[in-house]
Amino acid sequence: MKLVFVAVLALCTLISVDRVDSSAYDKIVTHSRIRARLQGPNVCAMQQVMGTKKRKYFSTFLHTHTHTHTHTHTHTHTHTHTHTHTEPFLCCPGYMKLEGMKGCPAVAPIDHVYGTLGLVKARTTQKYSALSKLREEIEGKGSFTMFSPSDEAWDLLDPEVLGALVSNVNIELYNALHYHMVNHRMLTKDLKNDMSITSMYNNQGLYINHYSNGIVTVNCARIIHGNQVATNGVVHVIDRVITNVVNTIQDALGVDDNLSSFSVPLASGVMEKLGQPGHFTLFAPTDDAFKNLEAGFLERIMGDNAVIAALVNYHLLNSVQCSEAIMAGSVHETAEGSTVEIGCDGDSLTVNGIKMVLKKDIVATNGVIHLIDRVLIPDSAKEVMELVDESQSTFRDMVSELGLSAAMKPETEYTLLAPLNPAFSDEVMSLDQSLLKVILENHILKQKHKLSELYNGQLLETVAGKRIRVFIYRTAVCIENSCMVRGSKEGSNGALHLMRSLIKPAQTTIYKVLMADGRFNIFLSLMKSAGLTELLKQEGSYTVFAPTDEAFDGLTERDITLLASDVNALRTILLYHFSNGVFINGGLEGGVTNLLKTIQGHSLQVLSVNKSIQVNSLDVPDIDLMATNGVIHVVKNILYPGGECVCVCVCVCVCYVSGFSYTKIPLTFISKFILTVFIIVVVDCSEHRRNTSFCLFVLQRGQSPRQLTSKRTHTWIQVNRCLCLI
């Protein structure tokens, strides 16, 4: 009884210490407790793959492949994992059931390592420990960590290998078991990622990885039940039998004749690196994988050391990724610089969504090798035209049909601005081929222009010699009227950018565009009266919201003449339609108000909705008319600062009040607040009314016109008609 008490006390002490310094593995045990909380105290939910005996704790990451997930209790669920499994419930480490009680309410007594092997049902390891004379050692004094293969792991071992072990139990089997042991206690919290620890077999190394998702591996064998505390150590049950590792990745490549195409001469540039200490994962293509490459590919790249280096490094990760730790859709950066997505499909690994791993987890002293049946080709090893995919297939086909491929030779650097397929409408496709060729030439640039090198106002030269402009916005990069979509790529001889629409380079100035259009006669006339015509012609970058003739329908010819006669007021109104900078629809941030400061000084409130624009809550029927000095958006209303309206003032009545002073103000004022002591103004904004009764407005200092108080008066003075902003 005293021994049991001491054992229980020791276990509780170890558990409490472990909780103080928890690891990612400890968190998945906690997660398993939560999943099983309805089953009673100290119960852990385990993941068991159907058709196998393997049980393991759920990792902290969820899979994304759909399959049926059933529980051993009464209700059924559907979750997203890689294959069908059941969810049994077991006592968490260190606890046991009591008859008639729910869950696992009792702390299990602990035994020595040999006895613990029986408690965790690692009976084959226990049997082999007895056969090899290891039993006495792991029952006796000392402190050990044993990474014990499960019974199923022994069953999966190659029969020839197993036969060689059991035929010489005192040497081969004994040494093999010693390689699974460390001569001191190490709980999972002590097993750090990328750690190398010394085994009890000839001081050979064991290679530990402790992943953030809670999975812990030893030589890529997963710990499926960890921290089974013993009086003289701890037992961790693993899912495979491990063998001693002596080769580096370089050595492993050198002795495998099936990898000669990769290792010589392609990998010669990284062979030295793969022979040094480190933590690498290599996806090594077999010789057959190279035979399946497109004819001429290897011959084409052999003379380009940069492309060869990119190809090889795309197969290399600067981290150890054992197969058991790989969850669906995990993205990793390669030594080449771009990323690969590694996932799982059942028991198979996938790379970039494709099942291609022939053999996994070839463990080396500096990492792990996975053999694959195809060569991974990064974008940087492809020609630019090879980067064009099905979403730009119309562009690709038309480039070929119209004879533009000749400008894109492997030794020539160029950039493709490839429109997505929807950009090629029936109307576009019905154009004459000579015109289509001109349009497509606007999408092929001389030289390589990477996305990171583009800047606002930059001029890019097309293969036809035209210069097109770059516009940089907070959330978009645009070229002329067309903006890029996500997916830019860099090839061996250039770059590819995906464009939302066809590029329409500007041909002439804002002035000439408006003149040729025919809808802006009044606007152009008023610009002339205000002395602003040169603004439409000069070099620069402007956005103009140009009102059509229809926008002036509410004014008579006399009103327009009157407005034109007051140059200051006219310039104020007209310059409110201009903003410095080129703001096309695609460059405006959607769903929020974009404030564009006008040349007049106030701001326009611009909203981008789908493929249209609203300015100051008014619809813009026609957008993105490109000009060499800016862009034109067409409006059918006159825009006024602060959202006020223009009215025709018919008369003004001034009442003299004793004790107050008065300030004379012009009728064409623009001020939002009227800074006078007291003035009395009568305004009629309904010029079509007859027998108008006028309202008397008393304005106090700092008061807005919207806050006016109405009174009647009988004293008024008739003045000339004028336009004023109120």
TrEMBL record:
SMART domains: FAS1
Lineage: superkingdom: Eukaryota
Domain FAS1: 112-242, 246-376, 379-503, 507-639
GO biological process: cell adhesion; extracellular matrix organization
Keyword ATP-binding: no
The keyword Disulfide bond is assigned to this record: yes
GO CC entries: extracellular matrix; extracellular space
Keywords on record: Cell adhesion, Disulfide bond, Extracellular matrix, Gamma-carboxyglutamic acid, Repeat, Secreted, Signal
MF terms (GO), sorted A to Z: cell adhesion molecule binding
Principal cellular location given in the protein's record: secreted
Signal peptide residues on this chain, from the entry's feature table: 1-22
Protein's cellular compartments: Secreted, Extracellular space, Extracellular matrix
InterPro entries hit by this protein: Adhesion/Biosynth-related, FAS1_dom_sf, FAS1_domain
Pfam families: Fasciclin
The name this protein goes by in its record: FAS1 domain-containing protein
